Amino acid sequence: MTDFIAACVQMRSGQSADENLAVAKTLIRDAASAGALFVQTPEMTNLLVRGRERLMTQIVFEDHDIFIAAFRQLARECEIWIHAGSLAIKRPDGRAANRGMLFAPDGSIAARYDKIHMFDVDLPNGESWRESATYEPGSTATVVELPMARFGLAICYDVRFPGLFRDQARMGAGVLTAPAAFTKQTGEAHWHVLQRARAIENGAYMISAAQTGRHDDGRETYGHSLIVDPWGRVVAELADDRPGFVAATIRPQDVVKARASIPVLSNERDFGRTAISYRLDVETAG
C-alpha cells in the first residue's frame, strides 16, 4: 500500500442544509486541490439542529438527501474518496440515523456506518444530551478496504469505547476515524488524549474532522480537527476556531512499524472476569 494525503474538513454546520453544503463543497475542493485523496467531513455535516421535532421536519431519506447526491458527484469530479463523517438521515421507522458514508472516486457509496454509542449525558456545566431519543443506534463495527489502506469507521462519542476500535484493528484496519461534534467542555478536557490513546493502543492512524465554534442552535463545539500517527504524535491539527481543512501524509508502513515495535494485537490475551470484594476488619484499641 502506498502513501497518500488525507484531509479533515472542519465546519460550523448550522440549520440550513443548503448553506452547510456550499461550505462543505468548497472546503472539499480546496483539500482535493492540495493533493488529498481521502477527505473527511465532521459529524452532522448536513445539519446541526437541537430538538427532535425540528430535526425530524428537516431531514430526509437517503434517496432524497442533497448531500449524498452532491458528494457522489464531487467524488467523481475530484477523483477522491469522500468520507461524510456523518449525516442526519431519516429512517423508515420514524427515527433518525447518525450515519457516516464513504463515497468512492467513481461516485458509488462504498460504505455506511450508523453511530453505535449514543451521547446520553448530563455535563457538569448543565448541558444535557439524549441522542437516543432521536437516533436509532447502529449495531455493527464497520471496516472498509480502500486501495491505499483499510479504514475503520466510527463517530464522535464512539471514541470513548476502545473496544470498538480494537475490534476494527483486529479486522485489519490501520486507519481509524472518529469525526465529531465534540462539545467545547468535553473537548477541552478529553479530545486530544482520547484520539492519541486510540492511535497508540492500536498502532493505527486516527483521522477525526470536527465541528467548531458556536452554532445556530446555541451549542458550542471544540473543533481541533486532528490526524494522529500510530505512535501517538499529532501530525496535523486545525487549532483555530474556524472552518477550514488540515492535511497530512498517511504512511501505511508506519502502521506496520508501530505494530512490530509494540505488538499489542498479537500479545493481547483473553482472560476471565471475576469480581471479588474484600472487607478488612480493623480492631482498634479501646
Summarize the structure.
The chain is of the alpha/beta class.
SSE layout:
Blueprint: E1 4-10, H1 17-33, E2 38-41, H2 52-58, H3 66-78, E3 81-90, E4 96-103, E5 109-114, E6 120-122, E7 128-130, E8 142-145, E9 150-153, H4 162-170, E10 175-177, H5 184-202, E11 205-208, E12 212-214, E13 220-222, E14 225-228, E15 234-238, E16 244-250, H6 252-261, H7 264-267
Parallel strand pairs: 1-2, 2-3, 9-10, 10-11
Antiparallel strand pairs: 1-16, 3-4, 4-5, 6-7, 8-9, 11-14, 12-13, 14-15
Helix pairs in contact: 1-3
Widest β-sheet, arrangement of strands: 5-4-3-2-1-16
Sheet/helix structural class: alpha/beta
The arrangement of helices and strands along the chain is EHEHHEEEEEEEHEHEEEEEEHH
User: Considering DSSP H and I runs of 4 or more, what fraction of the residues is helical?
Assistant: 25-40%
- Give the strand content: 25-35%
Task: Specify the CATH class.
Answer: Alpha Beta
Q: Compute the number of structural domains.
A: 1
Tally of individual helices: 7
Q: What radius of gyration results from the CA coordinates?
A: 20 Å
CATH homologous superfamily label: Carbon-nitrogen hydrolase
Q: How would you explain this protein's 3D organization?
A:
The structure is a single chain. This protein has 286 residues and is of the alpha/beta class. It has a single domain, classed as Nitrilase/N-carbamoyl-D-aminoacid amidohydrolase, CATH 3.60.110. Helix content is 28%, strand content 27%. It has seven helices and 16 strands. It has helices at 17-33, 52-58, 66-78, 162-170, 184-202, 252-261, 264-267, and strands at residues 4-10, 38-41, 81-90, 96-103, 109-114, 120-122, 128-130, 142-145, 150-153, 175-177, 205-208, 212-214, 220-222, 225-228, 234-238, 244-250. Strands 5-4-3-2-1-16 form a six-stranded mixed beta sheet. α4 (162-170) links the parallel β9 and β10 (175-177). α1 runs parallel beside α3 (66-78). The chain is globular, with a radius of gyration of 20 Å. The mean pLDDT is 94.
